[in-house]
Amino acid sequence: MDFRKTFDCIPGQFDRWRPRYCPELFSEVIRYAGIGPQKSVLEIGPGTGQATEPFLKTGCRYEAIELGEHFAAFMRERFSRYAGFHLVEGDFETHDFGEQAFDLVFSAATIQWIPEEIAFPKVFSLLRPGGTLAMFMTRTDEKTPNGPLYDAIQKVYDEHFHVKTRYTCKMDYRRAVCYGFEDFHYQDWRKTRIYSAQEYADYLAATQVEHITLEEPCRSRFFEGVKNAVTAAGDRIVLEDTIALYLARKPQTADK
Fold it and tell me: Does the pTM of the predicted model rise above 0.85?
């Protein structure tokens, strides 16, 4: 199964429940890449644009490539007022960018869907010498802050979470250096979210790709079981987020 357009089926729910990034992350990417007017930025797979506006506000020439038609429509409605905004509907893996070159290419939890042997060389070729690759995402710890509640939820998974195809996409971001990038480094920031039973079920149903594809009767039983577990624990579940940022640079002396 190709999961890449799963979230495109529910753009409103996805936008409502996907965790936001912190302002410090955007400030660091913009500072590191030197983004401002006259600079060119490419976002890979923006979804509904949770990471888009901070870059548009710099006055840069912004381009996005988005595979999902509903996400693309969502983006155009939200950001077309910005003079520098441009969006292409297409697949980053196969799209021909012609002679375009960018000062920054960034991915907010998207590039891991692309095989590294395609993603890293293509980004490298699209960057100007000295240009920046930024990759960021939110990693969530549900086990540490919840103790027995986490164990109760795992029992619900064991009993009712039966999907036809598992999500297996992952990427070792450190391997960017194997494709010519340099000055690779990592930063992170921490946030905490607290949800009620219904909010947590809505969050899972809108942001976790396997949960969206879960079929009946497993779907109803699973979400009912999760809500019951959280309700029994005081109608409160704590999620501890790590907002992770990976930065790397194309050498100043590099050619396409």
Answer: yes
